[in-house]
Design a protein that fits this description.
Layout lengths: L1 H10 L5 E6 L5 H16 L3 E7 L9 H12 L4 E10 L2 E8 L2
Parallel strand pairs: 1-2
Antiparallel strand pairs: 2-4, 3-4
Length: about 100
């Protein structure tokens, strides 16, 4: 019994949550780097948590939602959504998991 437990523990894969922090007024190259990192994390089998921080009047615009939809379009076919984008104070968060 102990050997079977040890064997099962050796074969299991630990899924980590990787976090990528964004800003609503992100530049194109910075955005492309974040997309590239997200693709790498998803390919490794890790979940990716996107956090967007807002300052001042940025929350009044719909910048965060449009950036998250653009992000999901660029990662098309590599993910399934764990948690939809939700606003929590001055942050908007979303979590995606790799597609099996």
């Amino acid at each position: 019994m102990q050997k079977r437990k040890a064997e099962a523990k050796k074969n299991q894969k630990v899924i980590e949550i990787k976090e990528l922090k964004l800003r609503p007024m992100i530049d194109t190259h910075d955005y492309e780097v974040k997309v590239k990192q997200a693709k790498k994390f998803l390919a490794d089998g890790n979940k990716v948590k996107f956090t967007m921080r807002f300052k001042g009047r940025e929350m009044s615009n719909d910048l965060g939602k449009t950036l998250f939809t653009r992000l999901l379009d660029d990662l098309d076919g590599l993910y399934k959504i764990d948690s939809e984008p939700k606003l929590d104070g001055k942050q908007m968060m979303m979590m995606i998991a790799p597609e099996k």
